[in-house]
Design brief:
By secondary structure, this protein is an alpha/beta fold. It has 17 helices and 15 strands. This is F-box domain-containing protein. One of its GO terms (biological process) is SCF-dependent proteasomal ubiquitin-dependent protein catabolic process.
Length: 521
């Protein structure tokens, strides 16, 4: 609903220039009815629209008929409320937006979604579509997916969540979309019976990234994972069932796999050992997998010597610790990013990491009572390339902060959270010692640490350092949260201030505007 393209246009009088009596304009003839924006070529106007956010762009498109036309012809990304009523508006929407390459269709749980007929109409009018995201489109069936895939063969990225079509619908997509590179499946309802298997089809040679989230019978994707030899990224998050056998078959023949994310799975050291056969892996996330131990991590370290990013959430069950990390320090000298959450590590493994991983740039230590002043002092002395450091819920004091002031010459951001032994005086002294350093600090007692990523499940690559304002920041003994009403509200409540889904993530902010925002109509 609300998807029909508006035909309302505002008068252009606000852009008309009227002559004003002055000595300068006495000799100049100005047409009071001329629109001086007519001199801007359509291509330049389209570039200007791309720099606007979604709200401003929609407002600008209503200024006049020309701007309305240029906006529609230059819009590449579109997000629609995919309720059933949209079917009557599809012709007018895509008559206006005839160049859409990235489409998102979302429907809330309480509403009836669009059906196969509407999806077919969209596919006929968007033959150049390259990316499609379906969320909550429960009325779309395997037949609808088949018809869509036949018309949109240039699709390179597909993502669906909370839909009702099963394995056959995915098979139709893989059969016809020979350029498909990225596939994300979340909460697909009809893959529970296990009778149908997902096979790669014509997309076997093009598929490079597969992400499976919250599936009851994710093992039906085994043929897809095993037969797609070009996969570079694999993420399996909160999927029920035994995954060791799948990983064993996957690891035996994949030479291109470089990024693996395993979160809350029934996977053991057998699965990690199988993954370690993919020697080109440079990024590995092991998040809350209780059957993974030091033995599996040692196997990964010995075989995957190109490892650059390692994220481990041990869930505080002490099955991964010094032994595994010392193997990483010896075998993976190119390690640049290390995130340890709920992992019992001591001075021995931290000293080995600091001494051997000389290229380490980003380090996060969260929820480990064994991390103290000695460990931070060792890091400060030996990790000369360290740029970002996050310490949360560790037993450090002002001594560790003082060590940071004299070490880590390239340090630019420090985050200290829930470390009761650190005082604001020490943090202020650190800032005076290193004037360009950005610090985020609070001393609230931790209520728990969770390394699972977003609601979609996975951690992004890194640990974020929230920065308030444009310069150096020190928040005293109160919560270090965003300033403003939200920060004040959370500070007064004091209830959820310390419950962060991602306690730390190295975050690269992006300032993309315009079409990178959701262009909801």
């Amino acid at each position: 609903m609300g998807q029909s393209s508006s035909t309302t246009s505002y008068p252009t009088s606000q852009f008309l220039i009227s002559p004003e009596p002055s000595d300068f304009t006495d000799g100049i003839k100005i047409d009071p009815l001329r629109d001086y924006t007519d001199g801007i070529p359509d291509e330049c106007l389209a570039c200007i629209f791309q720099l606007l956010n979604a709200t401003d762009r929609k407002s600008s498109s209503l200024v006049c008929k020309r701007w309305f036309r240029v906006d529609g012809q230059s819009r590449r990304r579109l997000s629609l409320n995919a309720q059933s009523e949209i079917i009557s508006h599809v012709p007018s929407i895509f008559a206006r937006f005839d160049s859409v390459a990235k489409l998102s269709l979302r429907c809330d749980r309480k509403s009836l979604s669009l059906n196969d007929d509407a999806l077919l109409m969209i596919s006929i009018r968007c033959e150049s579509l390259t990316r499609l995201k379906l969320r909550g489109c429960r009325e779309v069936t395997e037949v609808g997916m088949d018809n869509f895939a036949k018309n949109c063969k240039n699709l390179t990225k597909f993502s669906c969540g909370s839909c009702n079509f099963g394995a056959m619908g995915i098979n139709m997509l893989l059969k016809h979309c020979i350029k498909l590179e990225e596939l994300t499946i979340k909460r697909l309802r009809n893959v529970n019976n296990g009778d149908d298997l997902v096979v790669p089809g014509a997309a076997a040679l093009s598929l490079k990234s597969i992400c499976l989230k919250e599936l009851v019978n994710g093992q039906c994707f085994e043929p897809l994972l095993v037969e797609c030899k070009m996969i570079k990224t694999l993420k399996v998050i909160r999927c029920v069932g035994d995954w060791d056998s799948v990983l064993v078959k996957l690891g035996s023949g994949n030479r291109f796999l470089s990024e693996v994310h395993l979160e809350r799975l029934q996977v053991s050291d057998i699965g990690l050992g199988a993954i370690s056969k993919c020697v080109n892996i440079d990024s590995l996330h092991i998040v809350k997998n209780p059957e993974c131990t030091n033995l599996g991590l040692v196997s990964v370290a010995e075989n995957c010597r190109k490892l650059r990013k390692l994220h481990i959430d041990g869930w505080k069950i002490n099955r991964i610790g010094d032994e595994g990390l010392m193997a990483v320090s010896k075998q993976c000298p190119d390690l640049q990013e290390l995130v340890l959450i709920g992992v019992h590590v001591t001075h021995f493994s931290m000293a080995a990491i600091a001494a051997n991983c000389r290229r380490l740039e980003r380090l996060a230590l969260c929820g480990s009572g064994a991390i103290g002043d000695a460990e931070i002092t060792c890091i400060a002395a030996k990790c000369v390339e360290l740029r970002k450091l996050c310490i949360k819920g560790c037993a450090i004091s002002d001594t560790a902060i003082e060590a940071l002031a004299w070490g880590c010459p390239n340090l630019v951001k420090v985050k200290v959270k829930k470390c009761k032994g650190v005082s604001s005086e020490a943090v202020n002294w650190l800032l005076r010692r290193k004037g360009s350093l950005i610090v985020s600090f609070d001393a609230i007692e931790s209520e728990g640490l969770d390394a699972s990523g977003s609601d979609a499940g996975g951690q992004e690559s890194g640990v974020g350092f929230p920065v308030t304002g444009g310069g150096n920041v020190v928040v005293g003994d109160g919560p270090s949260v965003s300033s403003g009403r939200l920060g004040l509200f959370r500070a007064r409540l004091g209830l959820f201030a310390s419950r962060n889904l991602v306690p730390c993530a190295f975050h690269r902010s992006s300032s993309n505007h315009g079409d990178n925002s959701k262009n909801n109509l």
